[in-house]
UniProtKB/TrEMBL annotation, chain B:
Origin: domain of life: Bacteria
Domain Carrier: 1-80
Xref: InterPro entries: ACP (IPR003231), ACP-like_sf (IPR036736), PP-bd_ACP (IPR009081), Ppantetheine_attach_site (IPR006162)
Protein name: Acyl carrier protein AcpXL
The keyword Lipid metabolism is assigned to this record: yes
Keyword Repressor: no
Short name of any one Pfam family annotated for the protein: PP-binding
Annotated source species: Ruegeria profundi
GO terms for cellular component: cytosol; membrane
SUPFAM superfamilies named among the record's database cross-references: ACP-like (SSF47336)
Pathway: Glycolipid biosynthesis; KDO(2)-lipid A biosynthesis
Keyword entries, A-Z: Fatty acid biosynthesis, Fatty acid metabolism, Lipid biosynthesis, Lipid metabolism, Phosphopantetheine, Phosphoprotein
Amino acid sequence: MSKSDESIRMAPSPSRALQSDADPWADTRGMIGAPGGVINIAHEAVDRHVENGHGADQALRFLGKNGSRQVFTYSDLSEASAKFANILVSHGLEPGDAVFSLLGRGPDVYIAALGTLKAGLVFTPLFSAFGPEPIRTRMEIGNAKVLITTLQLYRRKIAKWRSEIPTLKLVLITGDVAPDDCLSLDQQMAGSSSKFTTARTGPEDPALVHFTSGTTGKPKGVVHVHNAVLYHGFSGKVALDLTPGTIFWCTADPGWVTGTSYGIIAPLVNRVTIIVDEAEFDLDRWYGIVENEQVEVWYSAPTAIRLMMRAGAEAAKPYDLSSLRFLASVGEPLNPEAVTWSEEVFGQPFHDNWWQSETGGIMIANCPGAQVKPGSMGKPMPGIQAGIMEHEGDRLRELADGEIGELALKPGWPSMMRAYLHEQARYDKCFKDGWYLSGDLTTRDQDGYFWFVGRADDLIKTSGHLVGPFEVESALLEHEAVAEAGVIGLPDETAGEIVKAYVTLNPGFTPDEDLERDIRGHTRKRLGPAVAPREVIFRNTLPKTRSGKIMRRLLKARELGLPEGDISTLETDET
Amino acid sequence: MTEEDIRAVFINELVKIAPDLDAQDIGEDERLQDDLGLDSMDILNLVAALHKAFGVSIPEPDYPKIATTRLAVSYLQEMQA
């Protein structure tokens, strides 16, 4: 494979993402420094503040599971990311090369992300709860050159197949102990200089690749460029009220796009102090953090908010939560009850907003100060044009208020994706008549508020994560007993949706509880608990089209007792 | 129920929810989420299963008290007493 095939570079032709008449984003350039025309996310997020005399400001407060607390200033982050950049360069890595992280919440992911961007390489975070299979697939598609992870995750999920990824040159293990074919990050950092000249990246140079699931086929690597920093900074300020010195807590996992756009970049560009909690959701711990750290802006997700609701308003009573000035939620639609509940408990609603890996930043939001309609995702951000579309052959028809159609956005904002890695055709399919098609069905009321209705495809939204049924079905089919598999998402009051699988068996296997558990165990090992089905149902046959495609839509309609819709393509029915 | 009975039922419910685990390999002090890889939905499902098995309803703030097998067994024992 030649160098140009392995590294992430843009096609020479102008991207569709940039097709617009004028540049309404020119003003946002005032938010960044862009010295000598260089736009580099790490510079704008960290080094710029140090140069402007804010090096001693707190950038991160890391709260360890064990009760430890560690503060990083902007100078600390600047130096640590320079060291990380030097490590990459000293191992012969070059701009455009792909650096993957498989890490939980902690300072290392910040240092790795910023160091990677500083060196002009491309950063991809992965969800540490993924099983080996999704990790491997993404590293293969992304031509991973570097992986940074923990010893435990490496041993459990990577070591077995590491040698089968031909592009992988360097594996860094956090801490000071590493297996023979890896290097210790601590040791490398200790021997590395804290001076680094930031790569002279241009606005359209790739910076980040986030993976998102597809309905069919493999996951898609969504490419974002350094210019995205304009929108990260802008939307952080406008939608989340981030201002210098704000104490901000984004609870998203760093392995997902929210954890990067609003866990790392937007807050740092706005020079806020970020709270990073290593632990998973723990009610008392969370309320305690808000009180002790005096959190002002809290960006969380519906699943977590619903877990707080389950515990009731009483559980929040012992805590002083008065430092909170703005609450926001993303990941899946926030139900009206959760909005009302948060008004009672926190004295203000959680403000839902909507965006995707592809959009790179918040597109539709209940912004600070605006009236919240519980259950609505809000209104388009300033500068964002959104419409509701119906497909009419090759054309789109814009629908009126109150009608249900696909949410579409006029491309042109800086953090819009520039490509799906190696998948031009799939990228092109997202655009029609000058609109980007989101795949989400929505409606708009007469006041201009947007309301989520459902997905236009079979993708499943569970605990804020987008799960592609194809990836789950593929893992099911690897089990010796499974002949066919159909995977759907079913409504769940806490997770939004849960993953449920329907399978038929190969001859010689008996559908019983032991086999159900064995199949679920197999998929959990391959995919991890967030992606694997929570339930497996046995069927004699599955509903299929004439071309043999399993009709997931029909499985779901029947499970929910909904109308079956058009079943003219149904060839074999379910038994 | 003896401590041993409680442990057996607890492990049985745990591997029903997370069948990727081998009942024999689960250490007394391994944390369900950090070491055994359960996620928060698994914990909710486990709490529901324990409610069914023991008739004990575990409030949200007590979830840390069932974070390992050892902790859970002693918590369930206390709740039953």
